[in-house]
Task: inverse folding
């Protein structure tokens, strides 16, 4: 279970306990009038809904931060379709080849434990074999190259050899 799903489970449990205990509570209707809350409401009769959307009772800094600031490992097509979604993060292009053992280890580390990717870091998997124009643009000559880019796609720094999210995060400027 991820930390987020545990947190959402705890929120759901608290909500269920609150509903069970609110038989004598008052409620406010759309017009602002208060009245007795329905006593027949129980967790089993409450309509199913997604996780609570009002996360204000949780850590305020998490609810105020945009979702894009969470660490992410995405493919180039996803990043290219909406680069603005990752504007507040350090974006690192990872030029990987399926035949490269070091690339496979890095890929396995990044996909095996997504929670290990630090908040504010977006690693963009880029196909070394088919991304000829990108390789030329950034001067990439070997697979397993990482290129950090700014919001306009300009190179900030470039390196090879990282295999974990922490190692990648340690190289960003």
Result:
């Amino acid at each position: 279970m991820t930390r987020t799903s545990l947190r959402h489970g705890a929120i759901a449990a608290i909500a269920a306990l609150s509903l069970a205990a609110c038989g004598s509570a008052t409620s406010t209707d759309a017009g602002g009038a208060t009245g007795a809350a329905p006593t027949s409401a129980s967790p089993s009769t409450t309509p199913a809904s997604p996780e609570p959307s009002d996360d204000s009772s949780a850590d305020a800094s998490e609810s105020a931060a945009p979702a894009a600031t969470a660490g992410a490992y995405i493919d180039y097509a996803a990043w290219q379709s909406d680069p603005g979604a990752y504007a507040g993060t350090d974006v690192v292009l990872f030029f990987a080849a399926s035949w490269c053992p070091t690339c496979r280890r890095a890929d396995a580390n990044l996909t095996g434990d997504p929670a290990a990717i630090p908040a504010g870091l977006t690693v963009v998997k880029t196909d070394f074999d088919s991304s000829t124009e990108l390789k030329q643009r950034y001067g990439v000559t070997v697979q397993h190259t990482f290129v950090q880019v700014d919001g306009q796609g300009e190179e900030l720094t470039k390196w090879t050899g990282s295999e974990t999210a922490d190692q990648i995060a340690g190289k960003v400027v």
About this structure: Strands lie at 26-28, 34-36, 72-75, 90-96, 121-127, 145-149, 155-160.
